[in-house]
Design brief:
With 278 residues, the protein is an alpha/beta fold. The chain has helices spanning 4-10, 45-50, 52-71, 76-86, 101-105, 131-141, 145-152, 196-207, 222-233, 260-269, 271-274; strands at 15-19, 90-95, 110-112, 115-122, 128-130, 183-187, 211-215, 238-241, 254-256. The chain has two domains: 1-29 and 75-114 and 193-278, Rossmann fold (3-Layer(aba) Sandwich), CATH 3.40.50.1220; 38-71 and 117-187, 2-Layer Sandwich (SIR2/SIRT2 'Small Domain'), CATH 3.30.1600. β4 (115-122) and β5 form a beta hairpin. α4 (76-86) packs parallel to α10. The two termini are 28 Å apart.
Length: 278
């Protein structure tokens, strides 16, 4: 196992963690860009807001996908990071994932950089509601849709809770119960910016750390890559664990080309020897 260099780098240091979709592949959620990922084109915010057919397709697929994501369980990598937090090693965890698996695993200092699948927001009035509450309204507007889609079997769900469902032409979408405005999952779409306050909290996690550990992210999207650049600019060591190359490889002090679960679980096993007292 390729761990001695990684353990040596992080030993005695307070660590900030940044995770991406590769973190959740062992929980059954496919990565967007991993070596074994199917072709995927996530919907942009412009498509969602400007094209009713895109919105209809998205909500139909999300109506299936969010349920699968809600039922997904954390893996050994998520549990290892929660253990690191309990031992006082982590200053916090920044995740680009919307699947809530870090929270399910027991992590408490989590910044959901891109939001989560479990909440919906109105783009007009800002009203928020749970995805479960919207599900009841969508089910009432589309009786039998869920059963028909599930009967096909073998549904694949993307990291944004988008399920591969083809028959969406008759799906009826639901508007905001407060102002009849446009509802959207409260996640950051491609083409959107992460809320400033959330970014500032994430920078504070890195500021409080002595090193940055990236797990399961190709760092293709700037919203995550910025924290690698930030840590490197502060001369803080950066460790990357990811299958395949990443945008931040040239800034990494240590790069391990491997899955997150085995490496993070091994770190958690070796913690008694190097956990800080902070």
């Amino acid at each position: 196992m390729e761990s001695p260099e990684l353990v040596g780098l992080l030993a005695g240091r307070r660590v900030a963690v940044l995770t991406g979709a590769g973190m959740s592949t062992d929980s059954g959620i496919p990565d967007y860009r991993g070596p074994d990922s199917p072709p995927s084109n996530p919907m942009t915010i412009r498509q969602f807001t400007s094209d009713p057919l895109f919105r209809q397709r998205y909500w139909a697929r999300n109506h299936i996908g969010w349920r699968h994501m809600a039922a997904t369980l954390p893996n050994a990598g998520h549990r290892a990071l929660a253990a690191l937090e309990r031992l006082g090693v982590l200053t916090g965890l920044i995740t680009q994932n919307v699947d809530l698996l870090h929270t399910k695993a027991g992590s408490r200092r989590v910044i959901d950089l891109h939001g989560t699948y479990a909440q919906v927001i109105c783009l007009d009035c800002g009203h928020t509601m749970s995805r479960a509450a919207l599900a009841e309204q969508l089910e009432a507007a589309n009786p039998g849709f869920l059963e028909r889609a599930e009967s096909v079997g073998g549904i694949a769900v993307a990291p944004d809770a988008d399920a591969v469902v083809d028959d969406t032409a008759e799906f009826g979408i639901v508007d905001c119960p407060v102002c009849d405005g446009m509802l959207k999952p409260d996640i950051v779409y491609f083409g959107e910016s992460v809320p400033k306050e959330r970014v500032e909290r994430a920078y504070a996690v890195v500021d409080a750390a002595d090193a940055l550990l990236v797990a399961g992210s190709s760092l293709t999207v700037f919203s995550g890559y910025r924290f690698v650049r930030y840590a490197a600019a502060q001369h803080k060591p950066v460790a990357i664990v990811n299958r395949g190359p990443t945008r931040g490889d040239d800034l990494a002090t240590v790069k391990i080309d491997n899955g997150c679960s085995p490496i993070l679980a091994l770190l958690a096993d070796e913690l008694p020897a190097w956990a800080t007292s902070a």
